Every structure is written in structure tokens, then in C-alpha cells.
Amino acid sequence: MSGCTCPGVRRALALLALLGSLGGRGCWGSDPGSGELEGQGSRHPRGSWEAALRHKRSWVWNQFFVLEEYTGNEPLYVGKLHSDVDGGDGKVKYVLSGEGAASIFTIDENTGDIHATKRLDREAQAYYTLQAQAVDRVTNQPVEPRSEFVVKVQDINDNEPKFLDGPYMAGVPEMSPLGTMVVQVAATDADDPTYGNSARVIYSIIHGQPYFSVEPRTGIIRTALPNMDRETRDQYVLVIQAKDMVGQMGGLSGTTSVTVTLTDVNDNPPRFTHKNYQNTVLESLPVHSVVARVKAADADVGPNAEMDYRLMDGDYLGLFNISTDEETQEGVIVLLKPLDFETKSSFSLRIEATNRNIDSNFLSVGPFSDLAVVKLTVEDVNEPPVFSTPLLKMVVSEDARMGTSIGRVSAHDPDSTNSGIRYSIDRNTDLERFFNVDALSGVISTAKPLDREANSVHNLTLLAIESQDPTQIGKGIALITVLDINDNAPVFAIDYETLLCENAMPGQLIQTISAVDKDEPPSGHRFYFSLASPVAGNLNFTLRDNKDNTASILTKRGGFRRREQPVYRLPVLIVDSGSPALSSTNTLALRVCDCDADGVAMSCGAVAYTATGLSTGALLAILGCILTLLIMVLLIVTMRGRRKTPLILEEERDIRENIVRYDDEGGGEEDTEAFDMVALRNLNAMHADLGARRDASSGGSSRRPAAFKSLPDHVVFREFIWDRLKVADVDPSAPPYDSLQTYAFEGSGSVAESLSSLESLSSDSEHSYDYLSNWGPRFKKLADLETLYTTSPS
């Protein structure tokens, strides 16, 4: 709310507004157009309520008005409803229904007074449609038809203008004339535009003068100064105000910002920052390399700052070129041809820069181009030698002797020092070293015999090396073509397979032959064919030279038989046309075949005389194979019979070396599972066994065992091990890999005697272990276990 009014004044305003809206009516709350005014109707002569109900209409109204945003403490009086049926005796009550009935609007059922109990907002809802009816208080039956009326909320200025599209962004070209339109702003006011000036808006500019102005009624923003320069200032922020009540005092206002950007136009020509530029460049700079970069400054941006560079006329045209770098708008000078310090050591390039997109409105500013001079100084470098002819072609005869001179190459030092040159051949291009070059004179000569048929052209890379600086190496190419001589005799073009039918007729063509020659005479090949002198007068075949480097082989007779001669060999002499002429004799094999009526070979070669059965040689071969198989089977059976039990079980075999250790003192018979240790039952048995073996080897002397018994134990044991080793070496059933067999014994000097159970293998008698009980509690348990073991049934 923009102001405050006391409740009494507000009620008076409401009544005045209500009376104004009812002007011209017959009475308050009635419609003069209907011809029926309040109080105009009368009761029926009978005076009954039925007559009143049958009355067409005795009270009407259209609309009421109420001010929005009422702030009083009491309900706001809207108006009064009254029917002429109401006699004031309390028999009629008024009922209100429709939008806001009971929640916003209330009615006094006795008097018909209508009040608003809440603050109303026209911007939220501008009017309310209600229905009023007079009913009998006792029966609740209507005494008048239901009538509809509207309560309109009367507007006050309680909403400020708002810029719904703000803040604004706009652009205008720089240097625009005065009054150029920039953008139009618009503000809306939620108040009633049909009532008063609450929604009538006036625009003004608060911030942004003197550069821009705004039209008060339209909101169009225009430039207020001419020739605003983007390069000086490119952006302005304006504050625009919209005020209702036609801008009068007490009106509400709203503001928005407008950002105006000056867009660029091409109003600045390009200008070089310097008129002269200095650059140095090495004469060894590769072609198409960048020599220098120059740039003309342009205060404009975007397409207005794009420019083209070009070289003005001069002797450097064709040696250099300039183009525009589209990203940086620099002029890039590029080398097109090699530089030579000795020829020319400096260049002065005149360069012009011109805008691409010129605006004709700003031609008065001046020419949109500029000139600059770039001086290039060429720096001397130590260059490699240069061959006078980069590609030299030479020829040499195929029969040239070693040391024959072919030609001479020449190179020079382009530098002012004019250093001496040494020549050599890049051996990667002459791996077989067919040629040499004289290091001082550059004369190329042959170093080996040449063969045109192996290599007709030699491509050599020649090196020219400075004497003072060997790192400076120049390269040239020598193409040496080997000229052909007639050094290859002609031969058959292919290996012919000629078939001769037994039923061939005399004079029949059986083969056409041709020849090839590795040589390449300038006038082409010409071959001459004839039969070699030994068979020139044979009675079987003849040869006809076709004079086109081919020849035909013909039969002289018929009646050829395979049984008589299965193959004929015909020597053919071929002579070429070279100088001197070369010849060769080639043998043509003709196989006699059995042919069908169409001359298609069915079978060829010699005919076998034994139609069935096998030859004696074949039978002997078969019998030999059978005997060999029988011998192999007998050997396998014999070897299996002699095979002993393996020292290591099959599932425990391994391709690696095995070490089997026995560290237990007396494991009993189970220790002998892997090895036969019967011989180690006791030292006495070892003595006896070893003595028997020695006795057998010495011829049966009866004194040997007694002698061995007198030897020390370790000597006897050593002899026993050596004896076992010899036996294992000759044993064919021994494992194919190394194994370690360990033999150990208690010895004969122990007080307790031997504890090993190995002796049980050499005796069938029962053992008594009672003596173990005398050794203490620990051994008593062992004696009980041994007794239980020996007495238990097997």
C-alpha cells in the first residue's frame, strides 16, 4: 500500500463508488431497465405467501464494489440486500452462496447487510460471483427466485512497474549517428489499467547519460552522442526507471539495467609499428622454411582486423613468398629457393599490409594499407661440396677389363675457402665393389668383370668430401649402364615333354620347339635350328626350321613300338645371330605311348614282361623284413626275462637324480623294500659273501674266506661296496639314471651288540626280548611290543 486511510473514510469512499456505479437506477440495488423497483411490488389481494412466490421478480441488483487492501479492524461494509416480500416481521431470512461466501463475505440473514471479513487483492482476484436468495425462515422454502450478482474489487495503486525481460543486453555499432535506436524496454504494472493512472508508466534514464536517452512513453533507448568509439570505450551500463501514475509524485517505480556494447566497425587502418625490420638468415636454411614474421597493428577486432600481405616488386620475387597467419594475422615470409651467400648476401623486401574488409563509410579516415621494409642478411655457412652434374649417366661394355675407365665426376667447394675435394663411392650402393673412383681425379673405373644379365644398370652414390673439413660431404649420382655382348648361347625355351604315339604316321608333326637367349641384341633375336650331326641322317625323325625362331619335329616313319624302344633322344643344335655366333645342343626326349584313335596317350614308357607275381628280389626283401621283426621280438622277450625288480617303484620314478637316504637305525624287514639288503644282515655274512666272491674269482682257493675274516671291518665293507658297484655297472636292469644306495652297519664292537633287525632275515628262529626289560622302563615297553608282534598270528 502506498498510503493509509482511516476506516470511516474508506467506508465513505466505498459508498460513493457504489452510488456512482448505480447512477441512473430507480433505487439502490434495483435495475431500472427491468421496470421493477424495490418496494414497487405489492402483496396479492389474498395476502398469501403463494401469491408472493408467484410474483415474477420484486428485487434485483447487478454488482457491488469494494476497495482492495482494506486495513480496518471491522468488517468492510459492501452493501445491502432487500426484498419487497420482506415485511420486517422476521419471517424472511437472506442466504448468500457462491465464491467467497462465508469465508470472505458474510450476510446478515435478518437485514441483508453484506460485509467483507478479509483483505482483498484485486491482482489476485478482480471480482467474485455470488448468489443471493430470500427464504422462509420456518420452511426454508425460497420466497424469491435465486439472483446472481458480482462484487468487484476496486483497484488502488499497490503494485510497482516491473521489467519482466530485464536485465537487458544490447549492442550498437560504434560511430553510430545521434539518435540511433539501441533497444526497447517494457515494464508492466499489475494494477487495473482501466481505472485511474495506477498502470500508466513513464520511462526515464537514471544512469547512462549523456551517452544514451530513453523515450518516456515507448521505452526506446537511443544514442545521445554521435561517433562513440569502441576503441576508447566499448561497454556502457544504463539504469532505466519505469514509474506509474504517469510519473507523478506518489507513484511507484521499478528499475532495470541495460548493458550496451559498442560493436566494432572497420574504422582503423592497419599500421606497421616500424617502417624497417632487420633479420638474419643462414644460407643453409632449408626451402619452405620461415624466414621472418611481421605484423601490422589494427585496433579493430574480428573480420575488421583481418589483412593480407604481399611483396612489392623486386629481384627477390620467386625467392621468397609471404602469406597471412589466420590466427595471429602476421605476415609469414617463407623461403622458396636455396640461398647462396656467395651469390647474394642481403635482400630488402618491401611488404604491404591491406585490410580485407574495407567499410566505404570510413574511407575518409585514410588508406587502409601500410608499407614496411624487411632487410634480410644472409649469413655464410660452411657448405658441403657440390657436384657439377648431380646426375651423371655413363655406359660400359659387358666385356670391359678390370681397370677400364668409364668416366669422370667433378665437384667444387662453394665456399670462398675453395677447399680440396676427395672422392669416394658409397659402398652401400656398390656392395660387390664392381667399380672404383680415383680419390683425387674423380675417374670411375671397373674393379671386377661385369655381367649384364645379372645387373644391367648400376646406381652409384658418389661422395665428395672436403679435405679441410671431412664432415662436409656432398653427394652425386652416377647411373652406369652395362652394354650387352653376345656371351650366352640359346637354349630351349622350356623343358619339353614330347609324346610319340605308336600309331603315328610318317611326316606327322609331334613337337614345335622354340629358344631363348639371355642376351639382348639391338636388332632382336634370330635363331637357327638343325639336328646335331650324329643324328642328322637318322631314319626316325626330321627337323624343319620355321624361320620364325621356332622349329617343327616330324616323323620319318611309322610303326613305333614301346617294347622295342620306349624313349628316343634327339639332339637339336640351336645357333644365334650374334657376332660371334654362339650355339648349343639341346636334347629332346620323345616317349613312345599307346594312344587311342584320337591320338590321346593312354600309357607311355617301357612295357613290363612279368604280368603277375613278384620278382625274386621283392620276395627276398619281404623275407628279410619278417626275420628282422622276429629277432626284435626275441630280444624284447629276453630282456624282459632278465629284468630285475626296479630299485625305485614305477610311480616314484623321476627324470631327476634321486638321493635315497636311510637314517633309521633298525627299521626291520621294511627297510629292504627298495634295495636288496640281505647281504648286510651282519658283518659276518658280509665277510662270508665277500670271501666267496673272491674265492670264485681266484679259482676256488679255500683259504680266501679265512683271510677276509681277519681283515678290519672297514676294509671288508669297502671291498663289499666296490664289489656291489661292479655288479650294478653290468646289470642291464639297473635304473637308467644315477641313484645313491646307502649301506650302513652297527659294527661288532658295541656292548649292546647290534640293535638292527636285519639279522631276522637270515634266521627262522624265535627271538627273546626279555633282556630289554633290564634296561629300564622305556625299553620294557619296547620288549612287550616286540613279544606281542612275534606271537601274533601272521
UniProtKB/TrEMBL annotation:
GO terms for cellular component: adherens junction; catenin complex. PROSITE patterns: CADHERIN_1, CADHERIN_2. The chain crosses the membrane at residues 618-637. It is found in: Cell membrane. This is Cadherin domain-containing protein. The keyword Transcription does not apply. Cadherins are calcium-dependent cell adhesion proteins. Residues 83-163, 164-272, 273-387, 388-492, 492-602 form the Cadherin domain. The gene is cdh7. SUPFAM superfamilies: Cadherin-like. InterPro entries: Cadherin, Cadherin-like_dom, Cadherin-like_sf, Cadherin_CS, Cadherin_Y-type_LIR, Catenin-bd_sf. The keyword Metal-binding does not apply. Residues 1-29 form the signal peptide. Gene3D superfamilies: Cadherins, TCF3-CBD (Catenin binding domain). Coiled coil: none annotated. It comes from the Eukaryota. One of its GO terms (molecular function) is cadherin binding. Its main location: membrane. One of its GO terms (biological process) is cell migration. Keywords: Calcium, Cell adhesion, Membrane, Repeat, Signal, Transmembrane, Transmembrane helix. It is a single-pass type I membrane protein.
